[in-house]
Write a structure and sequence with these properties.
With 264 residues, the chain is α+β, with helices and mostly antiparallel strands. The chain has ten helices and ten strands.
């Protein structure tokens, strides 16, 4: 299954296309949508293109229309269809943890959300719908940012496991994700014909390589980093030899993750 993490981050970020005002009404919302449409179509890195926004269903729903490019390697219309409930739940939890004001904005406008994705090649579509009552219910829950981030991480784990195994380089593939009270662990299978684990493992070199990758994050990963920091967790790459089963942990601490986030 294609990875859906970047989709979640993109949808939550896309909420900000409409500004939040203290004095809101449907006339203001229509004006905001018209203003936002002047910037459309607009590219959404790693996803495709936001084509337009509209106010629908008797002015009760803000709809976002996206095109997923033919050569997209990250997710597909079919993946959205198969995981629509999970995508919706993680969207809400991610917004509660990282962008609560966006949900509050739509609550003020008393407008639900609809996302429509069209496959550029086949024309097939998939939809995610969040009615206003679900937005109001989510905002009424007495969840802290840390609690919302915890829920988002657990949903993220469910989605990520569906993408396994994930090839990250020649002879290296992620075969599992483990979330415990202190860490998010990426379990990496190491082909020992290429990288003998009996040799001295360069932990510092591996760590610097991971940090370089995190400083140029793929879409969606920054949301995961934020959720790890909010729940006081570190990130660990656990390298396991395919033959000897020897394992070496390379940890990126919560403080180091916070520094990476601050650089963006």
């Amino acid at each position: 299954m294609k990875n859906l993490r970047m989709l979640i981050a993109m949808l939550v970020t896309g909420m900000a296309f409409i500004s939040c005002f203290d004095n809101v009404n449907k006339s203001r919302l229509k004006w905001e949508i018209a203003t936002s449409n002047r910037d459309c179509p607009t590219e959404t890195p790693g996803v495709g293109r936001l084509d337009s926004l509209s106010l629908e269903d008797n002015d009760e729903v803000v709809a976002y229309y996206y095109t997923i490019y033919e050569n997209n390697e990250q997710f597909s219309v079919d993946a959205v269809r198969e995981n629509s409930d999970l995508v919706k739940r993680k969207m809400i939890n991610t917004a509660l943890a990282n962008n609560r004001q966006s949900l509050q904005m739509f609550e003020k406008y008393h407008a639900g959300l609809r996302y429509v994705f069209r496959d550029e090649k086949t024309g097939k579509t998939a939809k995610i719908f969040i009615p206003i009552d679900e937005i109001e219910q989510a905002l009424s829950q007495p969840l802290s940012q840390a609690q919302a981030a915890e829920m988002a991480l657990k949903d993220d784990l469910i989605m990520s496991k569906k993408s396994l195994p994930i090839n990250i380089d020649v002879g290296l593939k992620i075969v599992d994700f483990i979330l415990d009270n202190n860490q998010l662990v990426y379990v990496v299978d190491v082909d020992e014909d290429l990288y003998p684990m009996s040799d001295e493992f360069d932990i510092e070199g591996a760590k610097q390589g991971i940090i370089e990758e995190l400083n140029n994050p793929a879409p969606g990963l920054m949301t995961t980093l934020n959720n790890l920091v909010k729940t006081a967790r570190s990130m660990v790459y656990r390298y396991v030899g395919s033959k000897t089963k020897k394992q070496v942990d390379v940890e990126i601490s919560t403080i180091e993750l916070r520094t990476i986030i601050s650089n963006h």
